[in-house]
Each structure stands twice: as C-alpha cells, then as structure tokens.
Specification:
Elements: E1 4-8, H1 11-22, E2 28-29, H2 35-43, H3 45-57, E3 62-67, H4 75-86, E4 90-95, E5 118-121, E6 124-127, E7 134-135, H5 142-165
Parallel strand pairs: 1-2, 1-3, 3-4, 4-7
Antiparallel strand pairs: 5-6
Helix pairs in contact: 3-4
Length: about 170
Amino acid sequence: MARKVFFSFHYKPDNWRASQIRNIGAVEGNKPVNDNKWEEVKKGGDKAIQKWIDDNMFGKSCCVVLVGEKTAGRKWIEYEIIKAWNDGKGVVGICIHNLKDRNENQSSKGKNPFESFNIEVEGKKKPFDKIVKLYDPPYKLSKNVYNYISKNIEEWVEEAITCRENF
C-alpha cells in the first residue's frame, strides 16, 4: 500500500513539475489544488493558509519537499517542513529543476531548503540538512529525471519515515 505524503512546493513556478511527481502513483499525496482554489485559500490570509496546510498534512506520514529554483526560504515551505518534523513525520527533499514545466522549460537548481534550520540533539544544535536528505537526480533530460524519481521515490519516503522514527 502506498504511503500517504504531503507534497510541499512553490506553487506558481513548480505546480506543473509537482503534478508530474504526484502522478507517478508510488505514494499517495495531498489532492492537487487548482489556481482558483489556491487563490481563494490565499485570500483568507495567513490563518486560512495555515489551516489548509494543517488539514492537508493530517494523516500523512511524510512531507516530500519538491525543490525548485525558488523553494528555499519561502515562509510556507518552511512552515510545512517544521510542522512535519515536529509532528513526527518523515521529511525528504527532491530536486525537480530539471523536469520540464508546461512550456517545456527547465529551471536552475535551487538552494537546499533544509540548510536554514538547526534542531537540538542531546543539548547541541545540529544542522537539519545533515539529518534530512535532499535527492538531486543525476540527469539533465527531463524524461530521465522523471524516471529516476519514479524508480526511487517510494524508497526515499520509507527512508525518511524510518529516519524520523529512529531520531
């Protein structure tokens, strides 16, 4: 049975790339949101966005951060990462910059969104990016990137969940 995961990504530039990953079918993700629904949620302000995230993350065992060019440092991406970790969920990142968007364009590689966090381990601060993995498919062609992610995403999610359970 496929794990239920929450997909975290920068909506505007990466929703097309994210939909490719969701359609792989190896894991069950949160329901896709269309542009109109997302605009409606955003109009409700921070509380509405937070509630949408909280509601959609409920019942999931892992947060899969789909990392594009401008993912790192975004307020709601950071909220999703912290919430997932604090709720005991696995967290994993996958670079998606080499997947093509709806206009057949790839983007530049973005920064690791986990680099800006530290967590306390036995009274000492430890860099979050040393605990949580970010996978960067070793291909330039979009088709090869997709195939690589498709082949590995289930294993990456399981590894992230195990990491969190053993932490």
